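Preliminary data (for renewal application), NDP complex.
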Amino acid sequence: MNIVLLGAGGQLGREWQVFFKKGEHNHTLLPYTSAQLDITHESELADEMRQLQPGVVINCAAYTDVDGAEEQRDLAWEVNADAVARLGELSGELGFTLVHYSTDYVFPGEEEDREQFPDGYAEDHPADPVNYYGQTKWEGEQAVRTSSAHHLILRISWLCGVFGSNFVTTMLRLGSQREVLQVVDDQWGSPSFTAEVVRHTWMLLKAGEAGTFHSTSRGLITWYDLAQAIFEEKDIDVTVKPVPSEAFPTVAERPRFSKLNTQKIESIPGCTVEEWDVGLARLLYQLRT
Ligand SMILES: NC(=O)C1=CN([C@@H]2O[C@H](COP(=O)(O)OP(=O)(O)OC[C@H]3O[C@@H](n4cnc5c(N)ncnc54)[C@H](OP(=O)(O)O)[C@@H]3O)[C@@H](O)[C@H]2O)C=CC1
Ligand SMILES: Cc1cn([C@H]2C[C@H](O)[C@@H](COP(=O)(O)OP(=O)(O)O[C@H]3O[C@@H](C)C(=O)[C@@H](O)[C@H]3O)O2)c(=O)[nH]c1=O
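Predicted structure:
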């Protein structure tokens, strides 16, 4: 079976390529970076899919600059909403399974929700994004859901892996440059690790599942907790000061709480969920130089 990978150059896309290099299966992965196939180019996308006749299309392509999305609204919408809607239509027309990724940032993220939903938002919790990136991702999800696509939507949060830039690699860089860092301690959630997201997705595909699932690690922490744990684990001598969100102003608002509930995915055979610090320790080991 041909499996098309869109957005192959991003952090999740590259993890998928590693997975397929290692994997024992009879499928052919056809990876496309943004330069090889721009998903906003409607006719090119359709021609390519019609020609390849894939069994599965994994969409890792996205506009992921949360602050940038507030200003580059049209582009963020074209990539995260319009192009995803067309993938949904093509999936319906050509019969491939569409795997799509979305975000914890679709949820309202109210501070009070932390007490009300200590295990996180469930898949069917009403969306109400606090920023434009979240809105575009919600629109993309909805377009897939309402299309006739056989689909899997995995919502993930605080994605970290060995490839590309993420909070862990940013902290490691800043920790080597500065003596003191300020990190927000009033935004709660949990990291998703790219290797685990790929593993979960594969299990869902193998099980023939469809619909929306949450894939993240176990636990509820703040970005400050995550930063502290990175420096402790790596024995890096840097002072991390916990600060409220107001002390670290960003163009886009961030949710105060965006924990994803993983009960649903845990009911699928093989979809175990690891503690966040276990995933972090593995990632830091992989990132060692
Ligand atoms: N990063 C995170 O913290 C989180 C990510 N997610 C979601 O997970 C998915 C993967 O994210 P992640 O791997 O981190 O994202 P990255 O930003 O690392 O990768 C996204 C990739 O999409 C490509 N891309 C952008 N626009 C287009 C386009 N028009 N056509 C084709 N490719 C395009 C980018 O290429 P180029 O660099 O050349 O523009 C890049 O390689 C996304 O759906 C994202 O919304 C969800 C929660 C958290
Ligand atoms: C670098 C830095 C960030 N922060 C804060 C800013 C922000 O609130 C939080 C995380 O920073 P980031 O820039 O990594 O956050 P952000 O870009 O909002 O990360 C998000 O990306 C998108 C794509 C998603 O879908 C989300 O799940 C989430 O991972 O930490 C500090 O407090 N101190 C710092 O030194």
